[in-house]
Amino acid sequence: MGAVLLLLLSACGSGASEESPARHPGVRSDFDGDGYGDLVVGDTTATVNGKYAAGFAAVLRGSARGPRLEGPRVVTQNDLGLGKAGEGGAFGSPDTSVTADLDGDGRADFVTQAGRKTVFVVWGSDQGLTGTAARLTGSAPLTGDVDGDGHTDLVVGTGEDNAVRILLGPFSRQGTPRRSVSLDLTPSDPEYPVAVPAALGDVTGDGKDDLLVSWSILADYAPVARATVVYRGAADGKLVEGPRLEDGFYGSTLTTADVNHDGYADVVAGLPCEMLGDSMVPVGGSRLMILYGGTLKTSRVTGDTTGLPVKGPFMPCTFGGAPAAGDVDGDGYPDVAFSVVPRTGPEEVILLRGSAGGLTTEGARAVPGGSAVLLDSYGSRAAELVVRGREGIQVWRGGSRLLSFKETDLDLGPEIARGGHGLSPVR
């Protein structure tokens, strides 16, 4: 199957040349265009003007000294002038928020879902996120460049079974895309009734981002992934269903990054657990899997992998959670962070290094905490590791903890009552 799959994907493009530029973490979340990435944290359980779990997002500006706690920009749905915050709206949820430059002005914009089928775009400016926003219909936003024209595109669910809309950028400040394409993702294999858009990345190396879709079975709480299918990017935005990736390559969370710096996006899949009525260890065990774009070779990291900085055994259903990617040492190879919970200790985040040979445990390290993002808030072309843990949010650079703060350390204003979940960083 591997040879056939490689042929099908290679037909999309010949890959990047040796002159391909180094892929460092840029300023994806630089809302004010000053060259420093801004840190976004949110609490979906916070009460806003009496509405429980309406949620908020708080922006900490990046600087030469890292994220600044002073004067955070706090945004709720009420600030946008596009309808009032509703109970359970979960505005600013890390699970349904992304940052990207949708209007092409060189400043990142904040894209977040609120409620079941509303997506807000809060526009960046010289002053950061000012509250100027657009309201779109959709859910679970993903960003990338699916048509290869250099402008950011937006993929959103429609609320209809297995249907998405691809909104081709650039966008106007009213939220109008250059063009819109509808796409039916209904799986061609009837064994899988549900298709879930999971990630975007140029797996084929042709300069257009591909859509990774999880073919899933139905369960009590949410669809459970069982296979991953590539929908190939296209110049007209009409993505075409490509091959199904290697059997067994799927995850509850997917992310993409070129960890071996060969010009192809690699797919990282975290699969700590499956919710099949009860929490269950996946067949084959909890794991982190990597599929390398171009060659389509796969590798896996488990609790038995040699060289991990955290020793097992691990608690069931905890290894490989919430993978995130970014280049922490500035060598041009993105690194991958994921969470684990040892049986004999607190939750930790493991950071594995990218290299020409792929993801490696050589030089791996760990820090206390759970979910993580990687962000260049210093403008140094190397990412910091931002971790949510028992002590709140911690920012790590190299092996040093530079900043630690909790929700109580931020001035959120009188309309917000803190929730019980605490802050989480937005990817």
Short descriptors:
427 residues, four-stranded antiparallel β-sheet, globular, disordered N terminus
Q: Please bin the fraction of helical residues.
A: under 10%
Number of helices: 1
Which percent band covers the strand fraction? Answer: 35-45%
Largest β-sheet summary = 4 strands, antiparallel
Low-confidence sequence ranges: 1-26
Which overall shape is indicated by the principal axes computed on the Cα atoms? globular
Mean of pLDDT: 91
| Strand neighbour order, sheet with most strands | 4-3-1-32
Q: Let me know the number of strands.
A: 32
First-last Cα distance: 34 Å
Structural class: mainly beta
Round the Cα radius of gyration to an integer and report it.
Answer: 20 Å
SSE arrangement:
Elements: H1 2-10, E1 39-43, E2 47-48, E3 56-60, E4 73-75, E5 97-100, E6 109-114, E7 118-122, E8 133-137, E9 139-144, E10 153-157, E11 163-168, E12 179-184, E13 194-201, E14 210-217, E15 224-232, E16 240-244, E17 253-257, E18 266-271, E19 274-276, E20 278-280, E21 287-291, E22 298-301, E23 321-326, E24 335-340, E25 348-353, E26 360-368, E27 372-375, E28 384-389, E29 392-397, E30 400-405, E31 416-417, E32 424-425
Antiparallel strand pairs: 1-3, 1-32, 2-31, 3-4, 5-6, 6-7, 7-8, 9-10, 10-11, 11-12, 13-14, 14-15, 15-16, 17-18, 18-21, 19-20, 21-22, 23-24, 24-25, 25-26, 27-28, 28-29, 29-30
Can you tell me about this structure?
By secondary structure, the chain is mostly beta strands. Among the domains are: 138-250, no CATH class; 251-382. Helix content is 2%, strand content 39%. The protein contains one helix and 32 strands. It has one helix at 2-10; strands at residues 39-43, 47-48, 56-60, 73-75, 97-100, 109-114, 118-122, 133-137, 139-144, 153-157, 163-168, 179-184, 194-201, 210-217, 224-232, 240-244, 253-257, 266-271, 274-276, 278-280, 287-291, 298-301, 321-326, 335-340, 348-353, 360-368, 372-375, 384-389, 392-397, 400-405, 416-417, 424-425. A hairpin with an 8-residue loop joins β5 (97-100) and β6 (109-114). The two termini are 34 Å apart.
